Amino acid sequence: MRLSMWMIANRLHALEPEVHIKSEAPMELRGARNVVAPGCVHVYEQNHDIYIRYEDDFIRLHDIGFNYVFNVVQGIFDFYNDWTAKIQQATYDMDFQKIMDECWFFFGNPLILMDGSNRCLAMCSQYSDDEVDPEWEYVSRNRYSSLGFIRKMRRSYSVVDMYSKNRVQVLHKDNVEVYYETLTTAIYYQDFYCGRLNVLGKERDFNNGDIQVIEYLLQIITPALYMLQNQDTLNMRRGVFHELIQGKKVMSSMLKSQLDYLDWKPGDVFQVCVLKLSREYQDSGSCALVSNQIRRNSLNIYIMPNKDEIIIIYNLRYMDKSAVLETIRVTLQKDMDYQAGVSSPAVGLQQLKRYYQQAEAAINYGNLMKPGKKEYYFYDYALYYMIESSDPQNLYCALHPDVLHLEELDRRKNTGWLELLKNYFDNECSLVNTAKAMYVHRNTLVYRIGKLTELMHYDWDDIYNRDYMKQSILILNFYRKKYGEDFGQMDIK
């Protein structure tokens, strides 16, 4: 392992060295010599002080013997090599606790390693629960980050990209949300978010040597973190949304926990946007970069790079599709060409895979029917999707949003809104004929149609909207007869 002057200075911290090192001093030193030699620090005595020099950088120690310092400096190189071997073995053993404890000897500060679901994998054991700060105490006792801390961090550091890929970020202690200056790194294996490493500056200030050690450490442990995330026996540590996109079942408690971290609720209304970059930018690096930029420009969204595309999940309680698409436009500006597909609204996220498929279908049908556009809405192509789909559950999720809304009201309150809408359409929107068909007084019908209009979000005088609603009612009634009144609320193979 090659060292930098900063890494040597950090190991000499207890000797109170006088440090004169440029901030970007590279990791290229392989040993110590008592004469000038390529790639080595020169240790020598001058005016009763001991100097450790490399090119223009130097460390000066006062009132210490030359032989002692020379042996200590040479021992630092041996120590780093031994440390690397220990970290590699602990990584092979998946012993993250040992990794954190061994790292403490370099940083001399509290360290904590989290997985991709904000669950604590390990925190250095040199500190007790109450020796650092309230969040350290909470994590030590509960093994998860507190919801309040995560929300505060997102608000406080909205201008800092907290999810920048494998980049060490500095959180300054002048912010009220952190007790100490903190080095934090979002850990990615390729485009998969594996976790986070935090180092808290409780005992000493940080310098570039700390950042270099973190970057070196992550090269060793990141593949193991990725493997851990993918072990079937530890599925609860994987990204819940990643599992749902793949159509896998997740426990309600796991989903609720993930939603809590985003300040979302299980019954909220969500939409999915799929963003496809132009061919020259469809590599994993570009997708990760754009994802980070969008995340920085918009709060309360969940972004997931996925091969050659980017999946965006957002809560309509906080922002609508126009705000999301505007964020995409602002982020990409004229630098990149793209296409975006937006799904129908979804109550809850248990059917996330189907709404992801809708966003994909919006782009596919849009390119077929109206090529050349950048943004496509599933709503505009839902009838084509329904014609081609043979999956009853896909069809249910593709039903007109207003029809699904009325069906939900009917199921909960027995309102009869869908029956009214069907009869109104069957009678060509004639009040007289509809009143006769339903055996109600015309004035009563006028009142109910008025109330129905208030519940609708789309204008049924538009031909496409009306056809979409009529087709949705037809499909819903057919599958209710086939599968029962609970169609849409159960899994159908």
UniProtKB/TrEMBL annotation:
Q: Where is the PucR C-terminal helix-turn-helix domain?
A: 418-463
* Protein family per UniProt: Belongs to the CdaR family.
Q: Which Pfam families match?
A: GGDEF_2, HTH_30
Species this protein is from: Wansuia hejianensis
Q: Could you tell me which InterPro entries the record lists for this protein?
A: CdaR-like_regulators (IPR051448), CdaR_GGDEF (IPR041522), PucR_C-HTH_dom (IPR025736), PucR_C-HTH_sf (IPR042070)
User: What protein name does the entry list?
Assistant: Helix-turn-helix domain-containing protein
Q: What residues does the CdaR GGDEF-like domain cover? A: 254-364
